Amino acid sequence: MNILKAFTIEQIQIINLIKAICKSNGIKAYIVGGAVRDAFLGNKVKDIDICIDKNPNFIIGKLNGIKCFQYYDKFQTASLLFQNEVNIDLIRCRKEYYARDGELPIIDPSNIYDDLRRRDFTANALAYDIVTGSLIDIYGGLEDIKNKILQKIHLNSYREDPTRIFRAVKYAVRYGFDLKDKDEIINCVNEGVFNLISNDRIVKEIYLLCEEKMWIKNILMCGNLKIFNVNREKLEIGNENYNNTNKRILRLFYALEDKKCAYILGENSVLDSKLKVSIKNFTENYQKITSAILNTMDNYELYKILKGINDYGLILLKWNDKLKYKIYNYVHNMYHYKSSLNGKLISSIGIQNGKAIGEVLNYMTKIELNSMIKYGKKYLVKNLGEII
Predict the structure, then answer these.
(1) Start and end of every Poly A polymerase head domain (predicted)?
(2) Which of 347, 365, 348 is nearest to 356 (CA)?
(3) Looking at the DSSP assignment, which residues form a beta bridge with residue 66?
(4) What CATH class is the domain 148-270?
(5) Where are the beta strands (DSSP E) in the chain?
(6) What's the CA gap between 259 and 256, in Å, rounded?
(7) Distance between CA 50 and CA 94 in Å, rounded?
(8) Rounded to two decimals, what is the model's pTM?
(9) CB–CB of 78/56 below 8 Å?
(10) Dist. CA 377–CA 340, nearest whole Å
(11) Residue 27 pLDDT grade (very low, low, confident, very high; cuts 50, 70, 90)
């Protein structure tokens, strides 16, 4: 069974280089995981993982055409970029076991069978021997791919690593597979498996879900699996399918009716800092800010309320229909506002006191924003008596 027909000429060239080294040195080598799955699905193969039963450094030292690489000693893995722009990860076959559910696994070098057992789903537990050209399929993954079924490999899979729940959603939606483990996942979620892992691990997986082309379907499936409670109407308002992942995260946050998940999106080290600031500010001060915006009657007051709020915060406020016009007004007419005066110009007409300069600047800002006219120094000189 030759799966290499699904690979590019450049990819095959590199695979053959690795094959030759492995064959001459008695090393077992297998293309594993997503590359094998995608080959059988007829999809373009992007990421190639090759598992070997020896430290990758041995092969790296004999390979020609490497542009650059990074080696990770803890896992005995290496990410290689070749001069023909092909990326390949060389991975030492390993076994994993979990001291406690939710903890990161303990890793030991092993063989391909243990390596396949540590994987998440049967469809991802296929190995293609690049030396012999044979397929290793000990969990019926090929049959599941043909039948479009996604299921775990072993009994405690979702409890050992709860992030697999998010990956189950991602693959089921991406490939149109039937998720066989739905009831088990719901039970795990109800048991609180996500309490076993850090906010960062959860948010990383949510971010990956939001990177997907069908990200809204991912989020809705998460809702169906009780991972979080989401308001479908808020999620799909205007059918906005943002290309920017941060804006998708923002839309998810806006649609969440689950305070705990909303808290996690604001308390992690994964997301963009400005995005987190907006999420936390929205969570803590939304009612106060909304009320202030609704009650303001002039541009200057609106400007004072909104000038300290970043772009993500403005987007969140814009999604409230009651605020939409005022946010539009601010963004298009005041966002880039710069006063026609500054402290140096004001002091040049004889005002030296810092407090007085500030009062003049505030006054000029107010009349310029409310009238949308830049008045400048001449107006100040002419009306100075009324201003101070």
Answers:
(1) 29-150
(2) 347
(3) 82
(4) mainly alpha
(5) 29-32, 48-52, 66-72, 77-82, 87-92, 94-97, 106-109, 127-129, 135-136, 149-150, 178-179
(6) 8
(7) 12
(8) 0.89
(9) yes
(10) 8
(11) very high
Alpha carbons within 13 angstroms on the beta-carbon side of residue 119 total: 26
Cα separation, 335 vs 173, in Å, equals 40
Q: State residue 70's pLDDT score.
A: 96
Predicted pLDDT of residue 125: 98
Token readout for 102 is 């939710």
- Render pLDDT for 283-312 as a digit per residue (tens, 0 to 9): 999 999 999 999 999 999 999 999 999 999
268, two tokens: 């992690």
Angle (nearest 5°) at CA 265 between 271 and 250: 75
Tokens standing for residue 238: 């205007």
- Three-class SS of residue 244? coil
Q: Pseudo-torsion of CA 206, 211, 216, 220, nearest 10°?
A: -30
For position 74, what pLDDT does the model report?
86
Give the relative orientation of helices 245-255 and 199-211 as an angle to the nearest 10 degrees.
110
Amino acid at 73: D
Q: Which of 76-90, 194-208, 337-351 has the lowest mean pLDDT?
A: 337-351
> Using 50, 70 and 90 to split pLDDT, how confident is the model at 267?
very high
**What is the C-alpha separation between 115 and 210, in angstroms, rounded?**
29
Contact criterion met (CB below 8 Å) for 106 and 90? no
Q: Which two tokens stand for residue 136?
A: 């290793």
Give which of 148, 157, 92, 89 is closest to 121, Cα–Cα: 157
- Output the CATH code of domain 1-146: 3.30.460.10
Q: Where, residue-wise, is CATH 3.30.460.10 in the chain?
A: 1-146
